[in-house]
Design goal:
Membrane_assoc_protease; membrane; alpha+beta; NfeD-like_C; NfeD family protein; five-stranded mixed β-barrel; 5 strands; OB fold (Dihydrolipoamide Acetyltransferase, E2P); transmembrane
Length: 158
C-alpha cells in the first residue's frame, strides 16, 4: 500500500469521508461508493490483499453497490412532498391557456405565463381559450373550455 498506512484503514477512512460527503452534497450516489470502500476495507482487513487487488475489488464493489442501489430505489421509491416538481407540463393540467397560433391539423401554440408552448387539440382559431388536459411528447394537450350553465349568460324570467 502506498503511503505506508495499513490498507484497511485507508479504505475505511475513504468510506467515512464519502459518507460525510453524501450528507453534505445533494443526491444519493456517494453512499454506494462509500459502501464499496467499506467492503474493500473489511475484506482487506480479513485477507490482507495486495493493493492492485484492492483497487479491483473496490471497482467491482462500487459497480455492484451502485447497481444494487439503483434497483433498490426503483423498487422502493422515496415519496415526494411535490411529485410534480420537475414535471412542468403535468403541473399545468387544469390551467386555462390562450392560443397564440390557432390549432390547425391538431397542432398550435399557446401562451402559458411568460412563455409559449406547443399544443395539440381540436382545430381552433388564435385567441381561443382552452383548458390543459394533459401532455404528450412535450406538447400540452388542450380541449375547448365548456361553459357551466351559470356562465352561459341565459337568465330565466319568472
Amino acid at each position: 500500500m502506498p503511503l505506508g498506512v495499513d490498507s484497511y484503514w485507508f479504505w475505511l477512512i475513504v468510506a467515512v469521508v464519502l459518507g460525510v460527503a453524501e450528507l453534505l452534497l445533494p443526491g444519493v450516489f456517494l453512499v454506494w461508493v462509500a459502501v464499496a470502500a467499506a467492503i474493500t476495507g473489511l475484506v482487506t482487513f480479513a485477507a490482507d490483499l495486495p493493493f492492485p487487488a484492492q483497487l479491483i475489488l473496490f471497482a467491482v464493489a462500487a459497480v455492484a453497490a451502485t447497481l444494487g442501489g439503483r434497483r433498490w430505489y426503483a423498487v422502493n421509491p422515496v415519496p415526494s412532498a411535490d411529485p410534480l416538481l420537475n414535471d412542468r407540463a403535468a403541473r399545468l393540467v387544469g390551467e386555462t391557456v390562450e392560443l397564440t397560433r390557432g390549432i390547425v391539423n391538431g397542432h398550435g401554440r399557446a401562451r402559458v405565463g411568460d412563455s409559449e408552448w406547443n399544443v395539440r387539440g381540436p382545430d381552433s382559431p388564435a385567441g381561443t381559450c382552452m383548458r390543459v388536459v394533459g401532455s404528450e411528447d412535450g406538447a400540452l394537450v388542450v380541449r375547448p373550455i365548456t361553459a357551466l350553465p351559470s356562465e352561459t349568460g341565459s337568465t330565466s324570467q319568472a
